[in-house]
Amino acid sequence: MLRKYVFVLSACLFVGACTMMPAGKNVGDVGAAPPRGAEVLFDGTRRMLDEKWTYWEGPRFSSELPIKWAIVNDPVDRGTVVKSDDPAAAGGKYGAADIVTKKKFRDFRLHVEFLVMKPGGNSGVYLQNRYEIQILDGDKTPHGMGAVINESESPYFAYNGTGQWNAYDIQFRAARFEDGKLTERPLVTMYFNGQKAHTNQTISQVWGGPNSGLDGGNDGGKGVTDVPGGLKLQAEGHDVRFRNIWIKALTIDKADTDFVLNK
Asked: What is the DSSP string of 193-236?
């Protein structure tokens, strides 16, 4: 039977490569197209990588522009994707070559697809360049795959394994402040490959120290500031690949991030 494919972005009409992948049934599936009002942050092309992303120049930054993350053929489907093994991050030096969106966000709905090429592959998705949703093959602890790092259990049951595409669907509400003081902690709800993984998970701090992300060096990560941040992808010297990343900015007034994936 012929497989159905979906174009992630019409930009492929203007460049020599584009991302094509099996069309998902639900928004939370691998290959899901962005809904109305969402912005595509990565479509598999070098053009969009350079246009919308840059390096996070934290205290350990040691790479240089242009971004050294390579655009390579999708190992599963047609099209191209980006791989995270920047040479500057060899040996697990997170923060040395992480990439972050140039645009910054507060509340949002996010879809990210990733593929871990080898056992033990390690990366991460950082909300507001602060709060890590872990990517770590083989780890089922609160520091492991799909965990809101050090805050929740790993939903390892939903992981498709190495060599297969996976999807995080996330709704995030940023911390709230009054007169410069923290009044409400950030909240996140997440589906992992279409299965509910976290519901209104409170995030208590930035983990990993100053090399991890914004505010990581403030009061041991507890000194979160009222500053928006970009979406960050982590380089840890491993071959983890990304594609089909889109985001929709929201304003979530009520302290509730729970949502239902659209059919």
From this structure: TTEEEEEEEE-----S-TTTSTTTTSGGGT---S--B--EE--S
d(CA 62, CA 70): 17
Report DSSP state, residue 70: P
Structural domain contains residue 70: yes
Instruction: Read off the amino acid at residue 258.
Output: D
How many Cβ atoms from other residues are within 10 Å of residue 88's Cβ? Answer: 19
Q: What is the pLDDT of residues 171-214, one digit of tens each?
A: 999 999 999 999 999 999 999 999 999 999 999 999 999 999 99
| pLDDT one-digit tens code per residue, 51-86 | 999 999 999 999 999 999 999 999 999 999 999 999
What is the pTM (predicted TM-score) of this model?
0.91
Query: Is 12 inside a domain boundary?
Result: no
CATH number at residue 47: 2.60.120.560
Assigned domain for 259 exists: no
When divided into structural domains, the chain yields a total of 1
* Phi, psi of 260, rounded to the nearest 5 degrees: -115, 130
Q: Which domain holds residue 60?
A: 37-250
Residue indicated by tokens 């297969």: 164
